[in-house]
């Protein structure tokens, strides 16, 4: 038996084998094996992607004069659409800032912002239950990083005092 097959069987035995489920998407609901459920795993926290009234209003206002309903890829890889620049300028104007940079997800924001704001001399202390995307961004930053026990501010204080002397 080859190594990959052994690893897959081991994952299956540990209930760790993952596969993409067949789901029917209906707005904020999903159906799996004839069971309709509220989709609590979506990144569409505000329900904007599944809001039919918003979609109709958008299409009425813009018709076909927009690039796509999704960025589909990183702007660094596939380039920019003028509508993105327009939106960033509008956001900057509304918040009275020099400029704005929008990310297509919280994950991408954490990957982009944390390395940009830190140096190898920075210290990040994070709650043990911080989102995995924060950990990914912190790792990319290559700064000193320690986690404290969940909601344990005494542990945070001790780490801060201990690590502050070293940085």
TrEMBL record:
Keyword Thylakoid tagged: no
* The name this protein goes by in its record: 8-amino-7-oxononanoate synthase
Listed EC numbers: 2.3.1.47
Q: Which GO terms describe its biological process?
A: biotin biosynthetic process
Q: Which cofactor does it need?
A: pyridoxal 5'-phosphate
Q: Name one GO molecular function term.
A: 8-amino-7-oxononanoate synthase activity
> Domain Aminotransferase class I/classII large, which positions?
36-163
Entry keyword annotation includes Magnesium: no
Keywords on record:
Acyltransferase, Pyridoxal phosphate, Transferase
